[in-house]
Sequence to fold (59 residues):
Amino acid sequence: MAASDAAKSLAGVTFVDDDMMNASLTIVFDDTKTDMEKIREAMKKAGFPVEGEPEILKQ
Fold:
């Protein structure tokens, strides 16, 4: 399972972009359906390390 697949498996995740060159993942989600903690847990369960603090952009 790819990191993007782990994120896409969560309800509320609407977009995922895997940037392998920079080892980063951009995730767009509905914060009424999921949150950063649930996303972090899904990534860890799938075996992907979660490092640093997320950059959260609000529209």
The longest strand covers residues 13-19. The first helix runs from residue 3 to 8. The mean pLDDT is 88. Helices lie at 3-8, 36-45.
